[in-house]
Design brief:
Elements lengths: L4 E10 L3 E4 H5 L6 H8 L3 E4 L6 H15 L9 E5 L10 H8 L6 E5 L5 H14 L5 E8 L10 H4 L5 E10 L6 E9 L7 E3 L12 E3 L1 H22 L9 E4 L4 H11 L10 H4 L6 H11 L8 E8 L3 E8 L5
Parallel strand pairs: 4-5, 4-6, 11-12
Antiparallel strand pairs: 1-7, 2-3, 6-7, 8-13, 9-10, 12-13
Helix pairs in contact: 3-4, 7-8
The structure holds oxa(dethia)-CoA.
Length: about 325
């Protein structure tokens, strides 16, 4: 009996060169390094340069992911970019990436689920590959989130950064227990006013700025991420002790630590990049995954738990046995 499943066979990432430390921020925002570190765990963030766009970040991450698995754009059937900061309102940034990597045969589109964008895009790609829309997909989280920040609002502007991460997904006919084991998504528009952008094409024809009730979002994050992780574990018939690595959305180290405790995982089984990257929205999970694969912590065959929550509210979790059977 065949066991068809979608494998995650490679990852790549890219961070813009410009690093802005908390000290530098403090020179033009009414904040200080001690507050930012204590309340969020963030020490610095990477920000795009003038003229550098989300598509550029996505291209660099995607090119690395493809090179890491020996594929080219021509091998890809599906490209999904999770982003809230597209280069243009339309066309999608994914079609731009499709052209840049010469993925002539690929279906390409963007997904907008803010910080949960990567787990949403992963779920959609998994379903599309399983239903015969192709055999190989690129799922990219890419953000120039700094473009949405109000640099006079210290409660939000210190929290975010820019970057991109990409994974290659491949349909396998005899996958055993490898690949995407479960994926669970949720949305609740009743909470759309606690984290949003005060602009958009159909509301006021502007780009707008991020607005957030931080404490409220924090409360929902801890509660909803714990609950959706339980659902993902149950859907995969797994328990938290079966997880090798928690690769969470990187919004706040206090949320990450709370999840680690709720899952009963040792601290050194959690990937934390929020200190260096800040919150890169849809890019944060693949950026964290890439960092831990590159430094040798995450290995072929490790079981990963990913979770994220963001504006909407939208949230989700996925469990993946990373790599491919050797
Ligand atoms: O990725 C999408 C999901 N987003 C999240 O998960 C974010 C969730 N929320 C959070 O991470 C936290 O709520 C924040 C980091 C945003 C804020 O931390 P907090 O502990 O909830 O602080 P607070 O908003 O209650 O603010 C506490 C104090 C306030 O002063 P008063 O009113 O107590 O005098 C703020 O004015 O800290 C002040 N404050 C700052 N001080 C220095 C707020 N921002 C800053 C700042 N620098 N940047």
């Amino acid at each position: 009996m065949t066991n068809q499943r979608v494998l995650m066979t490679a990852v790549g990432s890219y961070l813009p060169a410009n690093v802005v430390t908390n000290e530098t921020l403090s020179s033009f925002v009414d904040t200080d390094d001690a507050w930012i570190r204590r309340r969020t765990g963030i020490a610095q963030r990477h920000l795009v340069a003038e003229g550098e766009t989300t598509a550029d970040l996505a291209y660099n991450a995607a090119a690395k992911a493809l090179a890491n698995v020996g594929l080219t754009g021509g091998d890809i059937d599906l490209i999904i970019i999770a982003t809230t900061t597209p280069d243009n309102t339309f066309p999608s940034t994914a079609t731009k990436l499709q052209h840049m990597i010469e993925a002539k045969n690929a279906i390409a589109f963007d997904v907008q689920a803010v910080c949960a964008g990567f787990v949403y895009a992963l779920d959609i790609a998994d379903a599309m590959l399983q239903s015969g829309r192709g055999r190989r997909a690129l799922v990219v989280g890419a953000e120039s989130f700094s473009k949405l920040l109000d640099w006079e609002d210290r409660t939000t502007c210190v929290l975010f950064g820019d970057g991109a991460g990409a994974v290659v997904l491949e349909l396998a006919d005899d996958a055993g227990d490898w690949g995407i084991r479960s994926s669970v998504l949720h949305s609740d528009g009743a909470y759309r006013d606690i984290l949003f952008v005060d602009g958009g094409p159909s509301s006021n024809a502007s780009v707008g700025h991020v607005r957030m009730e931080g404490k409220e979002v924090f409360r929902h994050a801890v509660e909803k991420l714990a609950s959706v992780m339980d659902e993902a574990l149950s859907a995969a018939s797994m328990e938290a002790r079966d997880i090798d690595w928690l690769v969470p959305h990187q919004a706040n180290v206090r949320i990450i630590d709370a999840m680690q405790k709720k899952m009963g995982l040792p601290s050194d089984r959690v990937v934390r990049t929020v200190e260096q990257h800040a919150n890169t929205s849809a890019a944060s999970i693949p950026l964290a995954l890439s960092a831990a694969v590159d430094d040798g912590r995450i290995k072929n065959g490790d079981v990963l738990a990913m979770e994220a929550i963001g504006g909407g509210l939208a949230w989700g979790a996925a469990l993946v046995k990373f790599g491919r059977p050797s």
